[in-house]
Specification:
The structure is a single chain. The chain contains four helices and four strands. The chain is of the alpha+beta class. Among the domains are: 15-55, no CATH class; 60-86. The chain has a two-stranded antiparallel sheet with strand order 1-2. It is elongated. The mean pLDDT is 80.
Length: 98
């Protein structure tokens, strides 16, 4: 035991690998090293999974997909096509060709 920051008693541990973050890369490296019997420490200041899975790429793609669908619907409406016509296929389009 040693006295650490702010006079707190702490235990010194040794690791062969310290991984910062639990995103895709961090998880991959930590698991690969652990399988090779390395002593691994993982440090994550937020939730396990990383920015991409929890706040970045995946949630952003869900929001963007909704926006793309709304934009597509608006463009089809401007061209005279309704969502019902898009679902039923080309046979129902003849009524709009005037």
């Amino acid at each position: 035991m040693k006295i650490g920051l702010k006079g707190v008693l702490c235990e010194i541990k040794e690791y062969e690998l310290i991984v910062l973050g639990t995103g895709d890369a961090g998880q991959t490296v930590a698991l690969a090293a652990a399988k090779e019997k390395w002593k691994v420490a993982v440090i994550e200041k937020k939730a396990i999974g990383g920015t991409c899975a929890l706040w970045g790429c995946v949630p952003k793609k869900v929001l963007i997909s909704g926006e793309e669908l709304a934009n597509f619907s608006q463009r089809m409406a401007a061209a005279g096509l309704s969502p019902r016509q898009l679902r039923t296929g080309p046979s129902s389009w003849h009524s709009n060709t005037g």
